[in-house]
Write a structure and sequence with these properties.
The complex is a heterodimer. In chain A, helix 1 (about 25-50) packs antiparallel against helix 2 and helix 3 packs across helix 4. Chain A has helices at about 25-50, 50-70, 75-90, 95-110, 115-120, 120-130, 140-145, 150-160, 165-170, 175-180, 185-195, 205, 210-220, 240, 255-285, 290-295, 295-310, 320-325, 330-370, 395-405; strands at about 250, 375-380. By secondary structure, chain A is mostly helical. Chain B is an alpha+beta fold. Chain B has one domain. The longest helix of chain B is centred in the first third of the chain and has 26 residues, at about 10-35. The chains are: A mainly alpha, B alpha+beta. At the A-B interface, helix 3, helix 4, helix 10, helix 17 and helix 18 of A face helix 1 and strand 4 of B.
Chain lengths: ~400, ~190
């Protein structure tokens, strides 16, 4: 202390500084309970009651609770990064809330399909409710953009396991809207995605969401899934016209022997391409190391400090350079840590490339396969169980009439 | 004797069930490893360590909230009650009074009150404080360091990753246990 405490002539009582506590831990369990209840209700309405109205009610509820009340944190999409970091960084502590938000929707998807996307995720709900005039995207475009979430997932995991930026949270378009506050780019991006969502069905879910990418991989394994028709299909195309997400597949006739052979060859070619794409991706990923490494704070800071030390006239962040000098740390130690991180990122970037190449090849194989189908069916990956197609089905209308009579 | 299965088991159906079971096992393993590991954690909150803080001003600019959830905390028991407070006054003030041109605080959030000559008490209006740390810098460089920044948990929205933490050049941000959410210098009465 530079100055001794004062010697008052009269006794003096210090003003009280309030230590306002954070939200009690109990509320974390409330969040998980609401999540579980939402998943149960969404599955009930989408699979059992076949009620779009019920699904929309759950959407509104989760939008109000997880979106505007809880302000978007913690969410299943972001929890990917917490789980990834906890797996690779022994010093990082994963909370029960993040673990539950990551695992519960995955487990439910294995039994009832993507009911989480349908109504429990506030991001999905916000976009779904704002869709007023859906445009049909050409198949090449929606399938092509469908590769993006896997790249985003890989990049986010890569950054998180190295203790870098949580890309999913930093570039989330909606969290600024839930909080009604945030950096300008976040609010502008959020507004743009919402404007797009009025004409293109759920653009974030389909073309960016990394958690949606995981669920897309898992939904084909699900035990049950929302069905278009309650009984049988009259092959009328009404449901396909109703679906704004391009998630309903038309019937395909039984292929002839020649077609079958051609299909097999195409599938074999696509399967052979998977390892090649993985290797090529690995090299491409390695070349992208600097791009990923600069998401880490210490790599950035080492760059800024070295700029300042070399006496360069243009230091990209003089405030950070000054603060580092004030912290009294040796710059050599920082450079050492940054170098070690960059080496980790080099390996990680190669792994990211292998992952994206392999998943891309797998998707190509799935797309090149032509599955024989007698009726209109929801796509096993892309359907989000939103329930729009139920009412369009003539068989459903008959069922409703029967139910009203009896 | 043969047992008739109610539904025929197709090859595809069998494979799908097997893979589903595998994925569930993997998820269960993840959950189990989390439950057994000693580093599993209770709820955590973001906080900044005032001993590492260099008062660079990024707390005011990087928080997702405007104004920031980081506010100044004043530990009165270690305050010198100086007449010339370097947290309150700019360097080389024209006069030792409350004139705006003499104050360091850009929003006038600090109140200066005479206790008895020559001791003055400085209190912070948290509603006006933007967390820029100008006063904390002055107080730490020239005074006792009784003024320091803290994340106020009644304001903080508890982002999954604090955006100030990712920008803090001093690496001062930590995830503190929720039952000990403040890292304060000595002093500061509890309420």
């Amino acid at each position: 202390m530079n100055f001794p405490p004062p010697e008052f002539s009269r006794p003096h009582s210090f003003p009280i500084v309030q230590d306002l506590p954070p939200r009690p831990e109990l509320f974390m369990y409330l969040d998980v309970t609401v999540l579980a209840a939402g998943l149960f209700l969404a599955a009930w309405f989408a699979l059992k009651k076949r009620s779009r109205f019920g699904v929309v009610a759950v959407m509104l509820g989760s939008l109000a609770y997880f979106g505007f009340w809880r302000k978007g944190c913690v969410c299943a999409i972001g929890s990917i990064q917490n789980v990834a970091q906890s797996l690779f960084d022994p010093a990082y502590a994963l909370t029960a809330g993040a673990a539950a938000f990551f695992l519960l929707p995955l487990a439910v998807t294995l039994f009832f399909g993507r009911v989480f996307c349908a109504a429990v995720c506030p991001h999905g709900a916000l976009q779904d409710l704002l869709l007023v005039k859906p445009l049909k995207l050409p198949a090449w475009l929606s399938r092509g953009l469908g590769f993006l979430p896997f790249a985003y997932l890989g990049a986010a995991v890569l950054s998180a396991v190295n203790g870098g930026l949580y890309l999913i949270c930093r570039y989330d378009p909606f969290v600024g809207i839930f909080r009604m506050s945030g950096p300008v780019f976040m609010l502008v991006a959020g507004g743009a995605v919402l404007a797009l969502a009025t004409v293109v069905g759920r653009p974030y879910c389909r073309f960016l969401c990394p958690y949606g990418a995981l669920l897309r991989l898992l939904q084909p394994l699900s035990w049950k899934r929302a069905q278009i028709t309650p009984t049988d299909c009259v092959v009328c195309t009404l449901c396909r016209d109703e679906c704004p997400f391009d998630a309903i597949r038309r019937p395909l006739p039984e292929p002839s022997a020649a077609e079958r052979l051609r299909g097999r060859r195409r599938l074999a070619g696509a399967l052979l391409a998977i390892p090649l794409l993985a290797v090529a991706g690995g090299f491409a990923g390695r070349a992208m190391t600097p791009l990923f490494a600069q998401t880490a704070r210490e790599v950035q800071l080492a760059h800024i400090v070295s700029q300042a030390e070399s006496g360069s006239a243009r230091v990209s962040d003089p405030v950070a350079a000054d603060a580092f000098v004030r912290s009294g740390e040796e710059s050599k130690a920082l450079y050492g840590r940054a170098d070690a991180l960059e080496r980790r990122f080099r390996r990680g970037s190669a792994a990211f490339g292998v992952w994206f190449g392999a998943v891309g090849g797998m998707l190509l194989a799935v797309y090149s396969r032509q599955k024989f189908r007698a009726i209109f069916e929801t796509d096993s990956c892309d359907c989000v169980s939103c329930g729009r197609c139920f009412a369009s089905c003539p068989r459903e209308q008959e069922r409703i009439k029967e139910a009203r009579k009896g | 004797m043969t047992i008739a299965l109610q539904t025929p088991v197709t090859r595809r159906g069998f494979l799908v069930t097997a893979v589903r079971a595998l994925v569930l096992l993997a998820g269960g393993g993840l959950l189990g490893s989390w439950a057994l590991r000693p580093w599993r954690s209770r709820q955590r909150v973001w906080q900044l360590d005032p001993r590492k803080c260099t008062h660079c001003g990024k707390c005011a600019t990087e928080c997702v909230l405007k104004p920031s959830a980081v506010k100044l905390v004043h530990a009165f028991p270690i305050c010198g009650y100086c007449k010339l407070c370097f947290g309150f006054f700019k360097a080389q003030p024209h006069a030792l009074d409350e004139g705006a041109e003499n104050q360091r605080c850009p929003t006038g959030a600090i109140t200066r009150r005479l206790v008895e000559e020559p001791y003055y008490e400085y209190t912070i209006d948290e509603k006006k404080c933007i967390g820029c740390g100008q006063c904390a810098r002055g107080c730490t460089d020239f005074g006792n360091g009784s003024m320091f920044l803290q994340v106020r948990h009644d304001v903080c929205v508890h982002c999954n990753q604090c955006s100030i933490a990712t920008a803090c050049p001093a690496g001062a941000f930590v995830q503190a246990p929720a039952d000990k959410p403040y890292l304060r210098k000595s002093g500061g009465a509890r309420a």
